[in-house]
Specification:
The chain is an alpha+beta fold. It has one helix spanning 18-31; strands at 8-15, 32-34, 49-60. The protein has a 3-stranded antiparallel sheet with strand order 1-3-2. 5% of the residues are buried.
Length: 83
């Protein structure tokens, strides 16, 4: 698979069950702009489920505050400094 630009990624998710795969995709969707929950697929004779997800690491998830970094710390120029 070819990815044309830096910070664009294709993630193949493999999990033991559907609930776990959906939880992983939802967690990634909270971090970055993604293609959303991918279609789950099963391979006959193999355990587990798989899905493919596309993510743009340059863009945070749409509902995440731009002032918060991944650790939950403020990263906005108008944010108050340490107490």
């Amino acid at each position: 698979m070819y990815v044309a630009e830096p910070d664009l990624t294709v993630l193949d998710i493999t999990a033991a069950d559907q609930a776990t795969a959906l939880a992983v995709m939802a967690a990634l969707d909270r971090l970055w702009a993604t293609s959303g929950t991918g279609t789950l697929r099963r391979v006959p004779g193999e355990a587990g489920v798989g899905a493919r997800l596309y993510a743009d690491l340059r863009r945070p998830a749409p509902f995440r505050s731009p002032g918060l970094r991944r650790g939950g710390r403020q990263d906005h120029p108008m944010a108050p400094g340490p107490a």
